[in-house]
Amino acid sequence: MAQKTFSGINYGFRWTDDDWYEYDGVQAEKKALKARNAFVKELKADGYRPTTFSLGSQLVSRGGIGSGNPHIEIWTKCYGVNW
Fold first, then answer.
1. What is the separation of C-alpha 64 from the centre of its chain, rounded to a whole number of angstroms?
2. Where are the domains of the chain?
3. How far is CA 6 from CA 10, 14, 26, 51, 82, in A?
């Protein structure tokens, strides 16, 4: 069985020029869900029988030592699919 997750942090987070970040969690989570659902449609078209799930809010960190950016932590929803 294969699995893929779609985290809101990957659909709206970006570092700004002043060493901080921009993140609209509501919109990012909507984009993550939309991406997951589109992937599910592709799987079904390829003959798979995917099952979807939601992990709710996950604590994700970005930046930190050696990255050149400050360490930050953000709560974001994560959506997934097994096939």
1. 19
2. 3-82
3. 7, 16, 14, 14, 12
Query: What would the mean pLDDT of 40-57 be, rounded to a whole number?
Result: 97
DSSP state for residue 9 in the 8-state scheme: G
User: What's the confidence (pLDDT) of residue 64?
Assistant: 95
Q: Where are the alpha helices (DSSP H) in 1-83?
A: 25-45
Tokens of 34: 């939309």
Provide the terminal-to-terminal Cα distance of the chain, rounded to the nearest Å: 6
pTM: 0.90
For the stretch 20-45, pLDDT in tens is 999 999 999 999 999 999 999 999 99
Q: Are 73 and 61 in contact (CB under 8 A)?
A: yes
- As a whole number of angstroms, the distance between CA 68 and CA 20 comes to 11
